[in-house]
Amino acid sequence: MSIGSKMRARAARAGLALALFGTLAFATAPVLAQETDLGSLSGSIEIDGSSTVAPVSEAVAEEFGLAGAENVEIALGVSGTGGGFERFCAGETAISNASRPISESEVELCAENGVDYNLFELGQDGITVVVNPANTFLTCLSVESLAAIWEDGGTIETYADVNPEFPADPINLYGPGPDSGTFDFFNEVILGEDRVSTTDYTP
């Protein structure tokens, strides 16, 4: 029995995982009966998407092989949530890891390509904003100040711009790339719908 051929029989046979909101989506893939001999399976399963969820998929893939499915080749890529959804909705992958919910445009793209899917909750995660350990003066930031720092076209360039009691040292920003679900989630929660994130930062 070939898993790869069954999954390619329909573009809909795929899945996706969501970390920040704890969701996993699998398309209408073939369901194996409990008595299936995993050693009789062959083929390949391709997974792509979020780097946050990738370790979970890697662990599951390892356990799947140890359970007897050593003839099934599992390829795990990390192109980010957005890149993973793009491939998933094109029917190129069997599982797409994500750290944010699937967007309206991605839902439409999947529908256009005949990709149906089911969502499964994996767990919940969070985002932490940190400063360099050498920074001893910044102990707390409001959401509004954080948004002002990350807003595209904003006027915040130094710590003194945030608080005049802070030194006038430049703020160097670091964050996930724009294909990351963490990036999308941060923008949605911190910047909201009316602001756009700056691109002047180091991924």
Describe the fold and architecture:
This protein has 203 residues and is an alpha/beta fold. The chain folds into two domains: 3-120, D-Maltodextrin-Binding Protein, domain 2 (3-Layer(aba) Sandwich), CATH 3.40.190.10; 127-203, D-Maltodextrin-Binding Protein, domain 2, CATH 3.40.190. The chain has seven helices and six strands. The chain has helices spanning 3-8, 54-66, 80-89, 104-112, 143-150, 159-162, 181-191, and strands at 15-18, 23-26, 43-49, 72-76, 95-98, 118-120. Strand 1 and strand 2 form a beta hairpin. Helix 3 runs parallel beside helix 4. The radius of gyration is 21 Å and the shape is elongated.
State the gist of this model.
The protein is of the alpha/beta class. Helices cover 30% and strands 13% of the residues. It is elongated, with a radius of gyration of 21 Å.
What's the arrangement of secondary structure elements?
Elements: H1 3-8, E1 15-18, E2 23-26, E3 43-49, H2 54-66, E4 72-76, H3 80-89, E5 95-98, H4 104-112, E6 118-120, H5 143-150, H6 159-162, H7 181-191
Parallel strand pairs: 1-5, 3-4, 3-5
Antiparallel strand pairs: 1-2, 2-6
Helix pairs in contact: 3-4
Major sheet: 6 strands, mixed
Rg, Å, rounded: 21 Å
Helix content: 25-40%
* Strand count: 6
Distance between the termini: 43 Å
Number of domains: 2
Note the beta-strand portion.
Answer: 5-15%
Q: What is the N-to-C order of secondary-structure elements (H for helix, E for strand)? A: HEEEHEHEHEHHH
Whole-number mean pLDDT:
84
Q: Number of helix segments?
A: 7
Overall geometry: elongated
List the uncertain runs.
1-19
CATH class of the largest domain: Alpha Beta
Lateral arrangement of strands in the main beta sheet: 4-3-5-1-2-6
Instruction: State the CATH topology of the largest domain.
Output: D-Maltodextrin-Binding Protein, domain 2
The helix/strand class is alpha/beta
The CATH homologous superfamily of the largest domain is termed Periplasmic binding protein-like II
Give me the CATH architecture of the largest domain, please. Answer: 3-Layer(aba) Sandwich
